[in-house]
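Re: beginner question about structure tokens

> Can someone show what the tokenized structure looks like for a real chain? I only ever see the sequence side.

Sure, here's an example I had lying around. Input first:
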Amino acid sequence: MVRYVDTREREREILGLVVDSYISESKPISSSYLCKRYNLSYCPATVRNVLLSLEQQGFLSHIHTSSGRVPTKEGFKRYVAHLKEEDIVKDNPLAIESEPFVNSSLNELIDHTLDTLTRFSGYTSLIAISGSSEKVFYKGMRFILDQPEFEDISRLKHIFNMLEVRMSDLQSILFNCIGDRVQILIGDDIGFEDISDCSLIASGLRDDNIELAIALLGPMRMNYLKATSCLYSVKNQLRDLMDELV
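And the corresponding structure tokens:
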């Protein structure tokens, strides 16, 4: 009996494993690594052929002469497109302790929310608020400094320039992401050249008196499932506290 092989499904699987591995390892991923790490049923030659096909389609690239490959921006976008909402909801690792903040100020709640989101996600968190005035708050730049992608000081300067000088531009981007869905913007899709080698995960809430956007900023090599789950969790809990924010 001839066994039918879904080539697209196999490519989707291998691409997902490459991205997951690259997120955790921060180094090029080879076919031998994948076979050993995930105990794949495919032989190494088959995996190599799939990696080559993914590279030819623009989802992976070679780094110098290494036998391994790394995801491109398009590879990350394809990976993110296959994240399932039920997995995001299920992988929900944090909770805001809302009780102590029922009678607290807006600034106290924002500070606590940023701290919680940053601590659990491992990325820089941002909140933009529009009401009687417009402000952007952020926390966790230390996590940017920990990423190997930003050992180049010039790349760090671009990020600091965005946060310190061009905050109004960032604010506009965040407010454009307010809506029911969590949006994942990768690379130059953010629309901001200074952070075109980053990813931004954002969403928000609005009512008659206030707009609130929440976001996570990190390298393109983000753990998208974990970060999106953290943001989803915070957003849902802030929705429950919305009456207390105004």
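Each token stands for a local structural state, so reading them left to right follows the chain. The chain has two domains: 7-81, 85-245.
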